[in-house]
């Protein structure tokens, strides 16, 4: 894991130096590297760190009977035999959802002792907080989301720094990447589709080049998700949550990617599975993209409450869930034809989400469908995804005629270009679209 460069470190440094800094809650699915990156951050930015894991050290909860920050700091310092220095010690509360009192204490650190720097982590924090098992006052903490490694970070892990710079440069200038580099980048993109962005999996693959070993790591992560569904869930919801999660990647093979309950079980209805769907989203292991009913701001207020597409948080786990082999992806197995488009969409969703974009999709009856709609800068931009270089489609034209966007984006296997208001972005450069939005 030593070579893993994560872009979130720059955000953590901004948090540390911000005059408006509040205790930070770092959310994200299990195994996305939260503990590792915060420990790394503590090592480069602080004199020392005090680490508490509330799942492993259950007795720590007894120190939070009194929520006075001065009292908590004194007790933790004594227990851990460590000096806690304001501004120089990073206090890390890991798996904080296991101790609601520790979560509540962040309010008092914000109000009474903000000179202490605290980061709270939790894999299932969204589940416990949104379901009333833990609570914290809004406005007293800052939130940050941690995602699997995107393709940019994958290239950094593979030490493809030169290729990465060329991709960024060609995106900015909308000029084609040299053909040899374009082919190389597409090959690395296909590799990433299978390996995905879970740090332990990437680390193992970069170290050994053994895709089978990487698959074993992926299976262990999926098993840990299944275990969480059993441990941190209502008994009545466990089986349904597992059904929903398994079904996400299966429905990506359907031509109509709108999620349909009938494929989970015959006669399935929204009311039956709504809690299970909420669980996988709050746990950070899946994401819903809702259909826009009207293309106007604010987008969320103009989206459907019932029509959505469902994606897994990581394309590699999506491949593992379907028992694919790396050669199926690298050598374009024709039997995968129906799944390829859905997998490419899942990949683009994960890349754009990691950059902080809120995504929607759009349809015009049975006439057209645009895969993603996003606010990029001041503009509402349609984004179409194609898994190959063949990009014939009328959907973007239908949308452009109706709404006259500033430009449209097509993400495909074609090289960079810009013509007639259409920005062509290769699949391997999807992260650039999100990076542009973050400017």
Topology diagram in text:
Blueprint: H1 8-17, E1 24-27, H2 34-45, E2 48-53, H3 69-80, E3 89-94, H4 100-112, E4 117-122, H5 125-130, E5 142-145, H6 151-157, H7 161-173, H8 179-195, H9 199-208, H10 211-231, H11 238-251, H12 270-282, E6 286-292, E7 303-312, H13 315-321, H14 326-330, H15 337-354, E8 359-364, E9 368-376, E10 379-385, H16 395-403, E11 408-412, E12 417-419, E13 422-426, H17 430-438
Parallel strand pairs: 1-4, 1-5, 2-3, 3-4, 6-8, 10-11, 11-13
Antiparallel strand pairs: 6-7, 8-9, 9-10, 12-13
Strand order of the largest sheet: 7-6-8-9-10-11-13-12
Number-wise, the strands total 13
Q: What is the CA–CA distance across the termini?
A: 29 Å
Oligomer: single chain
What is the mean pLDDT?
Answer: 93
Describe the structure.
The protein is an alpha/beta fold and 439 residues long. Helix content is 45%, strand content 18%. It has 17 helices and 13 strands. It has helices at 8-17, 34-45, 69-80, 100-112, 125-130, 151-157, 161-173, 179-195, 199-208, 211-231, 238-251, 270-282, 315-321, 326-330, 337-354, 395-403, 430-438; strands at residues 24-27, 48-53, 89-94, 117-122, 142-145, 286-292, 303-312, 359-364, 368-376, 379-385, 408-412, 417-419, 422-426. The strands form 2 sheets. It has an 8-stranded mixed sheet with strand order 7-6-8-9-10-11-13-12. Helix 8 crosses helix 13 (315-321). It is globular, with a radius of gyration of 22 Å.
């Amino acid at each position: 894991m030593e070579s893993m460069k994560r872009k979130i470190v720059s955000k953590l440094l901004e948090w540390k130096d911000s005059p408006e800094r509040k205790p930070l809650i770092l959310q994200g699915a299990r195994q996305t590297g939260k503990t590792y990156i915060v420990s790394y951050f503590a090592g480069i930015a602080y004199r020392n760190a005090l680490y508490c894991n509330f799942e492993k050290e259950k007795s720590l909860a007894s120190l939070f009977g009194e929520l006075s920050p001065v009292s908590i700091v004194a007790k933790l310092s004594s227990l851990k035999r460590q000096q806690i220095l304001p501004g120089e010690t990073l206090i890390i509360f890991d798996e904080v959802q296991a101790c609601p009192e520790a979560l509540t204490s962040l309010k008092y650190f914000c109000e009474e002792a903000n000179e202490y720097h605290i980061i709270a982590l939790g894999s299932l924090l969204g589940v416990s907080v949104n379901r009333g098992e833990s609570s914290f006052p809004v406005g007293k903490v800052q939130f940050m989301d941690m995602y699997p490694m995107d393709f940019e970070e994958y290239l950094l892990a593979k030490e493809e720094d030169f290729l990465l710079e060329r991709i960024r440069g060609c995106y900015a200038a909308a000029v084609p990447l040299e053909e040899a580099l374009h082919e190389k980048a597409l090959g690395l993109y296909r590799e990433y589709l299978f390996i995905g962005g879970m740090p332990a999996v990437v680390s193992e693959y970069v170290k050994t080049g053994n895709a089978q070993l990487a698959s074993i790591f992926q299976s262990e992560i999926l098993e840990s998700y299944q275990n969480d569904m059993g441990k941190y869930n209502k008994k009545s919801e466990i089986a349904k949550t597992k059904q929903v999660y398994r079904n996400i990647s299966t429905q990506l093979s359907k031509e109509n990617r709108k999620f349909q309950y009938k494929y989970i079980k015959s006669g399935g209805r929204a009311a039956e599975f709504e809690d299970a769907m909420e669980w996988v989203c709050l746990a950070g292991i899946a994401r819903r993209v809702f259909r826009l009913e009207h293309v106007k701001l604010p987008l969320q207020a103009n989206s459907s409450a019932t029509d959505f597409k469902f994606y897994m948080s990581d394309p590699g786990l999506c491949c593992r869930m379907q028992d694919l082999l790396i050669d199926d992806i690298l050598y374009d197995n024709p039997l995968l034809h129906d799944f390829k488009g859905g997998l490419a969409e899942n990949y683009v969703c994960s890349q754009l989400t990691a950059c902080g974009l809120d995504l929607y999709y759009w349809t015009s009856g049975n006439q057209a469908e645009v895969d993603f709609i996003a606010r990029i800068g001041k503009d509402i931009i349609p984004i179409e995804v194609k898994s190959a270089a063949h990009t014939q489609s009328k959907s973007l034209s239908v949308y452009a005629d109706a709404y006259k966007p500033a430009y449209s984006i097509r993400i495909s296997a074609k090289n960079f270009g810009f013509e007639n208001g259409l920005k062509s972005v290769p699949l391997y450069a999807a992260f650039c679209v999100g990076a542009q939005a973050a400017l």
